[in-house]
Specification:
The protein has six helices and two strands, in the order αααββααα. The chain is an alpha+beta fold and about 130 residues long. It has a domain of about 80 residues.
Length: about 130
């Protein structure tokens, strides 16, 4: 799981750390409100319930639980990598291509990783749809 933008001030006083090692623990176990000052936000509570539901779905049925929860089976060339708590869906999952997230790991560059037009379309497509919906 990736938590690229799930930053909550009551869990971390250092937003520059972003999703650091073990930062998901309060969200997964619902212990984000152990310190009542500041109180958890509604977004944080909803996100925690979503993540807990995903963990329960996987624990009950490792083969199909997440698919039944609404996550597609993984394929690196399709939008099947779940990004949790990002700008486009702060309380759930947004899906993107694995190859786009792995782009910085590709060295030397491959023809697929150099295709800037496809990359920009895939990355900006949700932004354009979001703005159009306003």
């Amino acid at each position: 799981m990736k938590f690229p933008l799930a930053i909550f001030p009551d869990i971390s006083t250092r937003p520059d750390l972003r999703a650091y090692h073990a930062s998901e623990i309060p969200i997964v176990y619902g212990t984000f409100d152990a310190n009542p000052n500041p109180l958890p936000t509604d977004t944080e509570i909803m996100f925690s319930k979503f993540v807990q539901g995903a963990w329960v779905a996987f624990a009950r049925d490792p083969a199909h639980g997440l698919v039944n929860y609404g996550w597609p089976m993984y394929s690196p060339n399709t939008t099947t990598v779940a990004q949790l708590g990002n700008f486009f869906n702060q309380t759930g999952a947004t899906f993107t291509q694995g190859q786009l997230l792995d782009l910085t790991c590709n060295f030397p560059p491959t023809p697929a990783s150099v295709n800037a037009s496809a990359q920009l379309t895939a990355l900006l497509g949700p932004v354009v749809a979001f703005i159009a919906a306003l």
